[in-house]
Design goal:
The protein has 399 residues and is α/β, with parallel strands linked by helices. It folds into 2 domains: 193 residues, Glycogen Phosphorylase B (Rossmann fold, 3-Layer(aba) Sandwich); 184 residues, Glycogen Phosphorylase B (Rossmann fold, 3-Layer(aba) Sandwich), CATH 3.40.50.2000. Helix 1 packs across helix 18 and helix 14 packs across helix 17. It is globular, with a radius of gyration of 22 Å.
Length: 399
């Protein structure tokens, strides 16, 4: 990432996160990529996280270096560990850090803006009188309508600089419960193009990861827990025995669950691969004939935890045809028949027919692939940071 700086100066920002680092959860990747981009855009930003439990057992453990290597980012972002309950799989630190991190900032960083994705942090920092920027991907106005209506009463306070959303769908949920439009900002996530290097042809990618050069692959990459509804991809695969559905990113228990589902459905054309480091995922994207997001409604409409999934951005950057559900969040970036194929949610038979049609039309494949790559050019972390900068500039903050 490289963003030109200018002479505009803002108040320092402390980004509070209560997560374990490094971790394969997507939210930690989004936080590190975003904070790094803001640093490169010229912001004085510090990532404040709980002390990591590995520090207690490994004398030479360097959290900053581990984060940089795991998330494939440079070394400029300042990362501070707050001592207390260590971040570990037990997750005791989440509550502790939510309260003590704002207190730490109140005492040690009195002139800073608090930036966070943690609701407890945002509320407590607000109570302590700190200026805050809250970021979320969730439709909080729909998930917690009563609580959000109550909080909307305080939205005009100067202490709330604003709320950053990953989609218009999430923003609209907060408008419905009374948050003022001028306090809300939609910033789609982005792709770090360094994660996509080296670029590869389909054949080069398949040779690198030992896939059949002549086979037809539909590829999914990402989490495979139950609320992602990955079983829907198995249901679609059952209609398309001539295609191979390659699913990458499962934890051992997820892969066991899905393997059992494949066995029960007598589906033999699904390959399951475990999670990979960030910089090892791109060959699987480049190797694909098509990339797929589970065409189901539940992740967004029932669980409310998947809105414009993070995987969409490297999918677009890979320059391959994308198959996705025809839902409001997807329609923000995917235009049916132009840069992707939007299919009916929760209808595996129709989804299979659409994929079959796609694979029979080479010109459509080429058009969708080229337009997906073109869409990706404006969806970088650099571009996102610049939009954020312009938003703050308009608010005349800190200069």
């Amino acid at each position: 990432m490289s963003i030109p700086k200018d002479t505009l100066k803002f108040q320092p920002i402390v980004y509070i996160s209560s997560e374990q680092y490094p971790h394969r959860n997507t939210d930690t990747q989004q936080i590190v990529k975003n904070a790094t981009a803001l640093h490169l855009a010229g912001f004085d930003i510090e990532l404040l996280i709980p002390v990591q439990y590995r520090r207690l057992f490994l004398r030479d453990y360097n959290t900053q270096q581990e984060i940089q290597e795991f998330y494939n980012v440079g070394d400029g972002l300042k990362i501070t560990e707050l001592w207390g309950f260590p971040a570990s799989p037990l997750r005791f630190e989440k509550l502790f850090h939510s309260f003590f991190a704002p207190l730490y900032i109140l005492i040690k960083r009195p002139g800073c803006i608090v930036y966070t994705r943690n609701k407890r942090v945002a509320i407590f920092a607000f109570i302590l009188g700190k200026k805050i920027i809250f970021e979320t991907y969730r439709k909080l106005g729909d998930v917690f309508p009563r609580q959000m209506r109550f909080l909307a009463k305080f939205a005009n306070s100067k202490k709330l600089i604003g709320i950053v959303f990953h989609s218009h769908v999430a923003e609209e949920s907060m408008l419905r419960v009374g948050f003022p439009k001028e306090k809300l900002l939609v910033l789609h996530n982005g792709v770090d193009n360094s994660d996509m290097l080296p670029t590869m042809t389909k054949i080069e990618a398949r040779q690198k990861i030992n896939l059949d050069i002549n086979a037809k692959y539909v590829v999914y990459t990402g989490n495979m827990q139950k609320n992602k509804c990955i079983e829907s991809l198995v249901d679609i695969a059952a209609y398309l025995p001539d295609l191979i559905f390659l699913l990458v990113g499962g934890k051992p228990d997820d892969m066991t669950r899905l393997a059992a589902y494949c066995e029960a459905k007598n589906v033999r054309n699904v390959l399951l691969l475990e999670r990979l480091p960030i910089n090892e995922v791109s060959p699987y994207l480049y190797a694909a004939d098509a990339l797929i997001i589970p065409p189901v409604s539940a992740p967004m409409e029932k669980f409310g935890r998947t809105v414009l999934p993070f995987k969409l951005f490297p999918y677009l950057a890979a320059g391959r045809p994308i198959v996705a559900p025809n839902l409001a969040d997807m329609r923000e970036l995917i235009r049916h028949g132009e840069n992707g194929l939007l299919v009916e949610p929760d209808n595996p038979a129709q989804n299979a027919e659409a994929i079959k049609m796609l694979f029979s039309d080479e010109k459509m494949q080429e058009r969708l692939a080229a337009n997906a790559a073109e869409t990706s050019r404006s969806l970088t972390w650099e571009a996102r940071a610049e939009k954020f900068r312009n938003w703050l500039k308009d608010k005349v903050i800190g200069h």
